Amino acid sequence: MANQRFAVMVGVDDAGSLLRFAERDAEAMRDQFAAEGFETCLFTGADATAGEIKATLRQAVMRSEKSDVLVVYFAGRTVTPEWSRGTDTYLITHDLDESALSENPDSGVRMAFLERDVLEFFAGTSVLFVDAAGDPPEFSRPTYSALTSYAPDAVTREDPVIRHGVLTAHILATLRRLPRVTFGSLASAVREQGLTPQAMSPPWGDGVVLAGPADQPGLPASRPLANPMDAAAGEILQLISRLTHHARMPRHAAPRSSGSRAEAGTAAPSRVEYLRAATDAHSSALLEYTASGFQTIDSSKRFDLDVIRPLLRFPAGADWFGHTVHDDHRTVLCVPLRLAEGRSLLLALVDPVTDLLGLGQPLAKILETIWRTDFAASPDEAEIEVLTALRGAFGRLPAPLYEHCFELYRRVMESYCVVFQPVVTLGKTARRVGVHSYEALARRSVSDQRAPVAMLRLAEVWGDRFVVERDKVILRMALRAYAQAHAEGPWAQPKPVSINVAVRSLLSDAYVEVLRTTIAELGIDPEAVTLEISEQDPIEPRRGEQWAEAPHAYFHNRLAAIARDVGVAFAVDDFGEGYASLSRMAELPLTQIKVDRAILHHPLAAKELSLVMDTARYAGHAPRVVIVEGVDNESPLTLREIYEQRIRHVQGYITRQPAAPTLSVISPETSEYIAALVRGDDEHRDTLITRADDLPLQRGA
After folding, report:
1. Cβ neighbours for 301, distance < 8 A, ≥ 6 positions apart
2. Pure H helices in 285-339
3. Strands 158-159, 164-165: parallel, antiparallel or unpaired by DSSP?
4. Cα–Cα dist 689/633, whole Å
5. Which of 411, 392, 395 is nearest to 403 (CA)?
6. In the predicted model, what is the mean pLDDT of residues 92-108?
7. Residue limits of the EAL domain (predicted)?
């Protein structure tokens, strides 16, 4: 039968990369294309197996005629195996065994199969949509139309507010919004919203009708995709500057509302008024949408819901990324803040300044981020959050915005201070209890004991340049603070200090140079400095890098070279978390092993600690000091039981003093208290408290 339209939709969530909405994406696309009259087939979750998907696609090809249309959609993760040398990309299905691909390459769904055996072999017209996290494939010059988006991780391609992949959200919005959609008009609509997916189509492909009647004149063909933020970088920077300016005004510095009625007191109108003033709008409001319609939770002066109610609508699904409605008298910018079953929150700005509306979807993402960001508390950190949200939603930032974010991040890191937490040597008598060493911790201020973990981890989102810069700044601050604290402290001989560092920083010559020059400048004994490498850091080459040796061997030689050149020592941090392995601990030239507090809560904690001690003792390098972090009253193991596993050092709040910028000895009373716990004299362990805020940071602390 001629003029048939087929749609095969595949969605596979991936917990490892936090890919949460791929299956929801595929279901929404199935529903949309089914409504347009396509014969659809959906594969999600455990049903998304390579064999079933390929069999369905082959069947569609075998029954196809020249007048037919095939749409193939995939949301999930992709991978390019190392053995393929970057030439073969796979769509990761539920049953894919990556380790078996080198022996049986056809056991998965290959992009080569999709291209050659399905899309190019289909008798009619074929269209491919891919909204993926992972490795991009190498495309040939296709005889099919394709709109594809690949990102290195799920964070950069999914939006938690709309609960869709960003490309998929815009595809759905266009299909729902326009009465007739061709592939060309769809690509244009996506481009106009600021996304930069790869769009390819043969000359006849732009006119393929995906929604609406097929007998109307064709719409304009797709133009090359570009990012409107390239031209709007100046306007975005001006908007951020305006937001910072208004946030510093006293009347806008009150805490923001989260949107619940119970919290919509005096603080919420200040937040709503702040956004009104920053966008130069006539009025603004926080609206709640339920089955009964819209109602106002908080609003600025002059806001009148009855006046704009005829304009308001609750757009289906993807349109909640942000939209503008208007009539002859007013314009309303609607920005989603929270989407939930039965109740959703919407920020409405009435008649904002016209220049801002030209920013389109980036403006919606900026305002949504601002609602949950406290500009008044830390303008620089808030600006970084806004720019990070833009990068996550649109894949990249223009160079001026990227460089602005880099300088902001450096400034934030340099505004932090350093405090020191002691590593305590255990003993059964008070005279054997003492300070073994210190760990340098980054804090926003001396009085704020909370670790700025989120801001420190943000460097990983932006890449190696940010990671190395973060670690360089904190290294300089930590060494300078350490030199001053020891000069003013009670120790005749310097106590060792440890500083956290990322794997990528140790691979950077710039970081090593800062390490060498700062130690020499301050006159610090390099043997007193230990660099802690987080277990949550993978030891592996980046895409495009070539390491002459296996990863652990390559990194071992790198550390050995730094140790010879500079003289510092190395430790492994967070052992038991992330990429933790006994092989890493055994193969790297380490002098310390820090055991993550999570191991203490394991049912076999005592056996695991014993194994760590054996590995530390019998490794082919110098004996390592084993330090257990986070010993507290909730741990299944007492301090006595830890001591019985031959462990003589712990770190945490057992000195009952917060981390401080100065160094001090342990008081006789505290030493006796710790010794009593080691002996097991005191069974009332509720006095032994480790506060989460004082736990060592992961990287860059």
Report:
1. 273, 283
2. 305-308
3. antiparallel
4. 6
5. 411
6. 81
7. 398-672
Whether 89 contacts 136, CB under 8 Å: yes
Report how far residue 408's alpha carbon sits from residue 398's, in angstroms, rounded to the nearest whole number: 16
Is residue 541 within 8 A of residue 553, CB to CB? The reply is no
Average model confidence (pLDDT) across the chain? 81
Reading the block at residue 677, the tokens are 């716990």
- Looking at per-residue pLDDT, the higher value among 198 and 415 belongs to 415
Does residue 647 have a pLDDT over 90?
no
**Token code pair at residue 398:** 């223009």
DSSP for 266-282 reads SHHHHHHHHHHHHTT-S
Task: Give 592's strand partners.
Answer: 571, 625
Q: Are 54 and 39 in contact (CB under 8 A)?
A: no
DSSP string, 377-390: T-HHHHHHHHHHHH
- The residue whose two tokens read 């919509």 is 264
Please give the full DSSP string across 31-74, using - where no structure is assigned: HHHHHTT-EEEEEEGGG--HHHHHHHHHHHHHT--TT-EEEEEE
Strands 569-575 and 592-595: parallel
Copy the structure tokens of residue 445: 């201020």
Spatial separation of the C-alpha atoms in residues 484 and 418, rounded to whole Å: 11
CA nearest to 71, candidates 22, 135, 113, 10: 10
| C-alpha gyration radius of the chain | 29
Tell me if 288 sits within 8 A of 298, measured CB to CB.
no
Among 209-223, 299-313, 412-426, 608-622, the minimum mean pLDDT is found in: 209-223
Q: What is the mean pLDDT of residues 401-413?
A: 95
Maximum average pLDDT range among 11-15, 430-434, 632-636? 430-434
Rounded Cα–Cα distance for residues 701 and 15 (Å): 27
567 vs 530: CA distance, rounded Å? 10
What value does the mean pLDDT take over residues 631-658? 81
Q: 252 is written with which tokens?
A: 């806008």
Could you tell me if 600 and 630 are in contact, meaning their C-beta atoms sit under 8 angstroms apart? yes
CA gap 72, 111 in Å, rounded = 12
* Cα distances (angstroms) measured from residue 357 to each of 278, 299, 338, 427, 487: 13, 21, 21, 67, 57
Reduced to 3 states (helix: H, G, I; strand: E, B; else coil), residue 342 is coil
- Do 310 and 293 form a contact (C-beta atoms < 8 A)? no
pLDDT of 87 > 70? The answer is no
Euclidean distance between CA atoms 197 and 139, whole angstroms? 13
Q: Which amino acid is at 347?
A: L
Average pLDDT over residues 560-573: 91
Task: Look up residue 95 and give its two tokens.
Answer: 């049953």
Bridge partners for 334 per DSSP: 323, 348
Whether this prediction's pTM lies above 0.90 is answered by no
Query: Residue 579: what pLDDT?
Result: 42
Nearest to 5 by CA among 35, 29, 40: 40
Tell me what the mean pLDDT of segment 633-640 comes to: 75
CA angle 467, 468, 471 (to 5 degrees): 85
- Cα separation, 485 vs 468, in Å, equals 25
| pLDDT > 70? residue 85 | no
Q: Is the pLDDT score of 578 beyond 80?
A: no
Contact between residue 389 and residue 365 where contact means Cβ atoms under 8 Å apart? yes
Write the DSSP symbol of residue 448.
B
